[in-house]
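Lest this sound abstract, we let one protein speak, letters for residues, whole numbers for local backbone shapes, and leave readers to judge:
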Amino acid sequence: MEDVADPRISPRQVLVRVMATSICGTDVHVYDFDEWAGSRVKPPFVMGHEFSGEVVEAGRDVATLSVGDHVSGETHIPCMACDQCRSGNHHICESLKLRGVDVDGCFAELVAVDEGTSWRNDSALPHEVASIQEPLGNAVHTVFEGGGVEGKTVAVFGCGPIGMAAVALCRQSGAEKVFAVDISDYRLGLAQSFGAERLINARKEDVVKAVLSETGGRGVDVFLEMAGARDAVVQGLKVLKAGGRASLLGLTDGPVPIDVTSDIVLKNVTIHGIFGRKMFSTWYTASSYVRSGRIDLSRLITHRFALAEFERAFELMKTGNSGKIVMRP
């Protein structure tokens, strides 16, 4: 932790005092400075991208935000000029930058945010809850890309905070049955509290055998991959029924050996790669679930730390024995 100069804002930016910020798996990659981080980020810079705070200064050309507004921010910072941006796919901009990876982030007292990537929060929403809307958006994108889940069986592989949010979304949206798969009994217990009906610890059970035996050998209608584990991708495609759909959000640490013929082509399944959130349609959906009370985001938060205790927070996150961890500057 170091003292750095306060951010300077451009005419179309706001300066936000960070009131709460939460840790994401991407932050752990940067914290550990693994191979991916070493090839992408360029220190020194400020980490972090999930936050809520209050506007303390607005640039002269900002038209939609004012001092005192409560805001969060989209992690994706698009160029707004490429073919993807001009066709409504800002989240996969050809020149995309990520807050807390390519530009300074929010593990700080102050963060500069473009007006176009800001999201105004209801002032009644607690800052710690508002800080985890961004990962809820990941879950919304993953669960609903390509169709609904009402009346369907769903297998969620990976029960970190985004996976738990996915379980909650499925249950609140009318899924018939939700299978939760993880290697942590702690996180499986949390997934159960959000509505998962069948818990499978992949270290203790044969995942494929368990799911197929409880679906009459047909498999599940929807497979959601949130773990970023090669085995999860392989197993998930094997338990996906013919004609089913898969959404893959997790980032694996290498190539995945998939039986394309048997598990994809002959089963005529549909696979969606999921990156971040759609700007801003996903945010509107996520906000609706929170505002209506159908999802209580506060239940995702299991631990709270001061930002100065970041080392304890990160080490706890890496154990897997936590839900969402929130820090306050």
